[in-house]
Every structure is written in structure tokens, then in C-alpha cells.
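Protocol step 4 of 6: structure prediction from sequence.
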Amino acid sequence: MTLRDDRYIIIEMDMERSLFITRWKQESVDISDENIVKEIISDIANNIELYHPTYYIANQTNKEVVYTVDIQKWIAERLYAACCKACTKYVATVESSNISVSMSNDQMIEEVEVEGIKVKTLPTEAEALKWMEL
């Protein structure tokens, strides 16, 4: 089921597989206001807490927004706190084709290590699904 589909992101929940997916759009390059980023991330976290997915794929393939160092830690803590609360077991990040975005994401992943959640960065959504055995 689609939970959000706007200019910047698509958020979906597959109840049958307990799979939560976010897919950033190329238009995310136009995000210049940190408040928009915080609103989107809060929506993602709130939906994770609401639906308690076992699996979460953050598909960054088309993502173009690069986070400032200041907001990276906040995002990592907010999303991982939601995943802990929801008892999410697997989090896969699908790499962005934009090297700056990939580096920003790698820095966020390094910010937070959560016991009980397996985290991996993969090149495609298909490989993420395979890693999750879905």
C-alpha cells in the first residue's frame, strides 16, 4: 500500500511481507530547506513505528539531496530509534548513483549501530530483497 507519493519520495508498506520501502525521486535535488527533510524523515519514522515492519529498504537510487553533517546524526538517530521501537530486523540501503549522496549515507550509517538490526548497503533493490530472503 502506498503511504506517501509526492514530488520527493514514495513510501510503501507491503503488509504481506512486512516490508517497508522508501524510494527517493530525482526531484529531491530541489530540497533546500532542512524542515522539508525533517518532515519527510519524521513521516518515514512515524510510519515505521505504526506498521512495525520486519524489513526496511531505503532505496536511494534516484536520491539527489545531500544532508548537512548537522542533520545526518539526527536522521540516523530518528530512523534507527523508530526501527528499534518497531522491532525491525533488517535495514537495507540501496546506493545512490550520486557519489556525494552515497558518501553522506555512509556517514549516517556509521553514526548509529543498533544491536539486533542487521544493516547492509547494496547496489540494487533486487539484491536487498535477496539479502533479506524475500
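Step 5 (inspection) to follow. The domain at 2-131 is CATH 3.30.750 (Transcription Regulator spoIIAA).
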